[in-house]
Description:
The protein is of the alpha+beta class and 421 residues long. It contains 22 helices and eleven strands. The radius of gyration is 27 Å and the shape is globular. It starts with 6 loop residues before the first helix and ends with a helix.
Amino acid sequence: MMKNLQLKKRLPKDVFSVVRKIGTLAEESGFFAYIVGGFVRDLLLGVKNLDLDIVIERDALDVARLLRKKIDFQLKTHKRFGTATIILPSGFKMDIATSRREHYAYPAALPAVCPSSIRDDLFRRDFTINALAIKLNQGNFGQLLDLFDGCRDLKKGLVRVLHDKSFIDDPTRILRAVRFEQRYDFTIEEHTKKLIDGARRAGMLKQLSRFRIGDELILILKEEDPLRCLLRLNKLCGLDFIHPSIKLGRGISAGFKRAKKYISLSDEALDGWLVYFMLLTCPLDAKQIRGLCRDFSLTKSCQQRLEYFKKNASGALKELKGKAALSNHRIYEVLQPFSCEGVLGLTALTESRTTEKRIRLFLKKLTRIKTALQGKDLERIGLEPGPKYRQILKKVLYEKLDGKLKNKREELKYAKWLSAS
Ligand code: ATP
């Protein structure tokens, strides 16, 4: 008896309605449709996952367009990959792809793909736990398709490849194996571990493009506990392939633990992974960091945040650690130019209680203080608009941070005095 996954109970109503319609369309038009990959894995594990991948044994773009005639959603097509993304009014996303087979022209290359059966499509995947599918066709709707014992491995908590050439074809799977193992508290199955070791000895990670290493590293840094993943990766194959200067010493491990705490406490919208990246790249010089940003195709904004951190972190920490009294406005002046990630990076780097207290004061209190005074108030007192406005408002803010201005009247009085002097 096939296992039925009771999709109706487990999917949001709007999502259920779409997958139901895909099933009906598939049956009417004579093709097969499936939900595949991470969503199925997480559904079986009872983990929330809002990214649904659908694979059909037919042209995905055609089917997505057909579906659009029946249901209202936003459609993004990716012609180059022959895939489409459906975005429901609730924001839920589903990717639709044609089932395909992969061929690697040489080890670690990007694969050439061609349409194929669902079996081939599942066989090209990384691990048995990610090669599960759910049938959507009417009659079989909601039934699990488990061709490679993924369910058994989910139960046993094992990360297992589908074939022995897996890490040779695509060494990024080594990073993925570690990521899934650590995320779910699983174990990399013994034979799979031997294959990782074989791929390491064959130097496969060095053959990977830097860009792909960057992508997978960032995914690791986005995990709940990236340190665990990095420690495991380090043990399995070292971290030289990321950069020879990156080492996981005791200092960096302690930094990661502090960063994890501060990221979880932060109420700012921030790129948590970048905080870890800042810590990891501490031993690199500015030129090497720039090289890494280029290799990993990081955005300009990421690069700027990283470079500012590299250039200014040690100076800032030195000043904040000092025994001498520091005015609020000086603390603000030192920390304000850092990105949110940079400020958290500083907290993670320091073991000084004084520094930590000063950073906390900055985050919890100083960043919330604003002047009541605005440009239009300066205009009202007859000040010619220009760059002077910014300077005056900055000085007013600094006085206010130091507790010397109690209300708008006092701010205005101080601004008048500044403009006259
Ligand atoms: P996550 O929860 O981290 O998003 P996921 O399983 O959804 O995990 P994706 O990177 O979104 O991971 O990939 C979707 C699916 O595509 C995977 O479940 C897996 O079946 C397949 N896949 C992704 N990357 C690879 C790879 N490098 N080699 C083989 N299969 C892959």
